[in-house]
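Quick log. Single chain, no ligands specified.
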Amino acid sequence: MIIRRYLVKETLKTQGAILFILLLIFFSQKLIRILSSAIEGNIPRDLIMPLLVLGVSNMADLILPLSLFLGVLVTFGRLYSDSEMVTMHACGVKKNLNYQVVFFLCIFTCALTTINCLWFGPWSSLKQDQLVENAKINPSLAGLLAGQFQQTPDGNSVIYIGDVDKNNLENVFIAKINPTNNQRPSIIIANKGKTGNDAEGNQIITLDDANRYEGTAQLKDFRISNFHNYMGIIKPKELDSNSDEKIDVQQLGLTDLYKTKTPKAEAEFYWRLTLIISVPLMAFLVIPLSVSNPRQGRLAQILPALLLYLVYFLLASSIKANAGKGRLDPALWFYIINLGYFILAIILNCWDNLFMRKLRLKYIAS
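-> predicted structure:
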């Protein structure tokens, strides 16, 4: 049907535009946080793009339901304001066509939300933690910041590099303040150096014309050594992926969350169910809210609809936070909120049908 394709096309275009704008906003906020961490030296620069890409799953949790909600609200509201929807109904097009269009879009959006909640979200959260943890135990020499004193993860050494140009280093200062294996404190100074990797994946730092000062003022055998080429090898440590302490509930699948009987796991389980159910629920709710009168303007319907959407997710977020601390039962409140909004959606969708009109007229007449 031509009208059905027209409505799907217009709603999908609006949803895509809103999704792009929301994604750009959240993406910019995520980029600022990651860049701040990279500037402070908490994460290496080569992890900026991987963390941004993996962070899309956290953005999609709220963006996907909101994009469909706003897409239907804006598109249908515009059609009502321009009297296009009234003309369709006057020509014999039934209102059930609106539900068919929204149902089709719900299937597409709900599939993406389900994939994100059940698979991509937990996988990306686990991958982000692994990348950051691996960067902490295996710091990249190429990712060292110029002009800053940086401490190694074990706390035994302090490194300062005056200038970093790709793999080339200048004005290198390395101080072993807490040496191990009965070694003495030492300081290594070099004007130039470079970094690289060998075939086994080990990090290699090579310093040209380096001087090494070994010992302390209390030791009589203070040593000064000069090296034409001073080479250091850093072997990467393996990340322990089997440690239970590093497993977060956000990294568990829906089945594992259901089996894990902890407050945080139960709160996360019902939060993901809420994200999936919110797609058809809010889309069903927004259909009657998109009906507008050309004389009223578009804001008359947008503001109440956004308020209902905001209240829904604020309640769900509050329940998740309190349920994670064991203060309330997430299952009970999950059914209360979703059932309450479902009843509200039914009332709003049936408010203008023939039966409700007769009922309202009979109530007013009495």
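The two ends are 44 Å apart (CA to CA).
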